[in-house]
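[INFO] parsing input record for HTH cro/C1-type domain-containing protein
[DEBUG] input buffer:
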Amino acid sequence: MPIESPADIVSHLAQQMVEKGTSPRKLALLTGVAENRFELIQMGDWKNLTIREIAVICEALEVDLCRLIAGGSETL
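[DEBUG] output buffer:
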């Protein structure tokens, strides 16, 4: 999936959450990001997420954000 905007990143993260069967509760425990923030990802409401939140969520889901943006393989 080509990444062209923050919305594309959040859409990709939502897809990864589903594919990996990772619940918002589990990600909250792994990242320290409040559980309700993951609901924003599932709703595609990327405008309310911080860059830090997106970065730590990528790390927890083992998504290489730089590679994802550059168009390469996104998994670590």
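[INFO] The mean pLDDT is 84.
[INFO] shutting down worker
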